[in-house]
Amino acid sequence: MRSVVTAPASVLSTSGEVVDPTDPEVVRLAEELVEVMRVSPGCVGLAAPQIGVSAQVFCVDVTGHPKAAITHGTLVLCNARIVEASRWRPGREGCMSVPDLTGDVKRAGRIVVEAVLPGTGEPFTLTTGAFEARAVQHEIDHCAGKLFLDRVAGAHAVYQRKVYL
Q1: Which among 109, 94, 87 has a CA at the least distance from the CA of 147?
Q2: Where does the record place the catalytic residues (predicted)?
Q3: What is the pLDDT of residues 55-79, one digit of tens each?
Q4: Do 73 and 90 form a contact (C-beta atoms < 8 A)?
């Protein structure tokens, strides 16, 4: 099983490649992402760059998280893009790839995402909100080579993590 890559690894600041979701290697990558997410305490999402692969593939599952008001269970998406975003608000975020810090990031509280599913390559549209929308946006950012630190308002909005997972 792969390990989570931490900043300042260059793969985290490089835009991931568009993938062929039917490629067996992409299907295996999708499976690995879910495996690593499930064994990482407190993890609600993981993108391919976070395990060292420059690809636009990520998984999210906020089921059971205290902030989760909406959940679609385990989602694994390829080549995702946000097509609608509204209800912007700030919120605190952390990241497995930036283990010592958290930060306040303004994100859309409601999004519509278009993507394709690994394995089948079928188009998939996700409409979600609240914490799940934040998690999906966070992972899409990873696929684009961005960390939550790239989105904070400034140094005043970055904090030492108080609870280590």
Answers
A1: 94
A2: 139
A3: 999 999 999 999 999 999 999 999 9
A4: no
Rounded CA-CA distance 152/155 in Å is 8
Measure CA 126 to chain center: 14
139 is an active site residue: yes
Spatial CB neighbours of 25, under 8 Å, sequence gap ≥ 6: none
Could you tell me which residues are annotated as the binding site for Fe cation?
Answer: 95, 138, 142
**Overall pTM surpassing 0.90 (yes/no):** yes
DSSP one-letter code for 103 = E
Nearest in space to 126 (alpha carbons), one of 61, 67, 64, 65:
61
DSSP state of 3: P
